Amino acid sequence: MDHGTKAATQAPTAVEGTPHLGAHGAMITVGEVDSARNGFDPTAMLTDWDVGTVSAMADGRTLRTFEIMAEDKEIEIAPGILFPAWTYNGRVPGPSLRATEGDRLRIVFKNYGSHPHSMHFHGIHSWKMDGVPGAGLIGPGDEFVYEFDARPFGCHLYHCHALPLKRHIHKGMYGAFVIDPDPTRHPEHADVARSRLLGTPENAGWQELVMMMNAFDTNFDGENEVYAVNTVAHAYMKRPIRIDRARPVRIYLVNITEFDPINSFHLHANFFDYYDQGTTLTPTLKIVDLIMQCQAQRGILEFSFAGHEPGLYMFHPHQSEFTELGWVGMFDVVDKVAS
Predict the structure, then answer these.
(1) Order of strands, edge to edge, in the sheet holding 298-303?
(2) Whose CA is closest to 237, among 47, 76, 23?
(3) Burial level of 241, CB count in 10 A (0-12/13-18/19+)?
(4) What integer pLDDT is reported at residue 21 of this predicted model?
(5) What is the spatial distance between Cα 300 and Cα 250, in angstroms, rounded to a whole number?
(6) Has residue 4 been placed in a domain?
(7) Contacting residues for 290 by C-beta, under 8 A, at least 6 apart
(8) 213: part of which helix (H) or strand (E)?
(9) pLDDT value at residue 25
(10) Least confident among 18-22, 165-169, 263-267, 302-306
């Protein structure tokens, strides 16, 4: 498929065992994307957290060190559609960074790309660590170390803040940045905080997924031709996300779509609680089936299929164009997920 074309679709006949291929008018991209060539797999990205290298500081606090490099890389965003991306660690989105509230974070950033780049973190830090010109933006071949405390807890993101900003973001320089709450700091909601803290028994009871809503302007005319979650169009239609019916689901959802003012997430046949920005331990919206996010807005969705029969449940934005051009998927709800 040539650059600049809309994502090609076909109308396959749904066969027994693959009814999802006939869903939504059977508008599914033709063929498969080579994840090995890309160097990343959208399914693996859902649960692939980078927790860095952990060590102890002199004062006893946790130091969490991450190593990130910028590089130019051609990626496949839909079958036959190659996109000249700028990446963090060779993938789009970049690695999903995860830390605990109060950790000291050290991010060693190396620019192996062909343009100046930076890492701007949505969080609280010194102006010297902001990732803008004069504060962590570096040229090709240079290195910068960002260091700050992990706060506030929540569902955040990072992205390049070089100019022109829309080009650097659109080309793929972004990733999820999650800070788990420290339960000892939130005694009034300690149980909820423990459920979000990676590594606890309470957290292990949840099925956690990270989803970055993104899109690609393949002919660089300022309009997107391909839409997705985690980069590859229709990835979760062709390979529905397996969900254990007995365990609740938590989605860390981030919108990083350029050239469209709003994106959205709609869950079929179910409702969820929503924590805008993820910075609260009580929902900011309860029992909704649709939320909107502008660019860089993010939040946490929590829901359960415990009262549902097993089967295939769709999710997608409620902008029909986005859905038809690749941003749509299925949850495959089963009685028990095989270990």
Answers:
(1) 226-229, 207-216, 249-255, 298-303, 272-276, 285-288
(2) 23
(3) buried
(4) 64
(5) 7
(6) no
(7) 264, 265, 266, 267, 318
(8) strand 207-216
(9) 56
(10) 18-22
- Contact between residue 127 and residue 135 where contact means Cβ atoms under 8 Å apart: yes
pLDDT digits (tens, 9 = 90+) for 209-233: 999 999 999 999 999 999 999 999 9
d(CA 91, CA 70): 10
Portion of the chain with pLDDT greater than 90, in percent:
90
Give the three-class secondary structure for 324.
helix
Position 339 pLDDT exceeds 80:
no
Q: What is the distance between the alpha carbons of residues 171 and 207, in angstroms, rounded to a whole number?
A: 30
Structure tokens, 316: 């997608």
Domain count, the chain: 1
* Mean pLDDT computed over 276-281: 98
SS3 at position 289: coil
Residue with structure tokens 């590089």? 71
pLDDT in tens, 155-174: 999 999 999 999 999 999 99
Q: Which band of pLDDT confidence, cut at 50, 70 and 90, is reported for residue 8?
A: very low
CATH number, position 141: 2.60.40.420
Residue 308 above 60 pLDDT?
yes
DSSP string, 29-59: ESS---HHHHT--HHHHTT-EE--EEEE-TT
User: E strands, 89-191, where?
Assistant: 96-100, 104-111, 120-121, 143-149, 154-159, 174-180
- In-domain check, residue 339: no
- Residue 157 lies in domain: 9-334
In a domain, 319, yes or no: yes
Residue 48 CB partners (closer than 8 Å, separation 6+): 95, 96
- The CA dihedral of 175, 176, 177, 181, to the nearest 10 degrees, is 180
Q: For residue 290, what are its two tokens?
A: 């649709």
Domain membership flag for residue 266: yes
Length of the chain counted residue by residue: 339
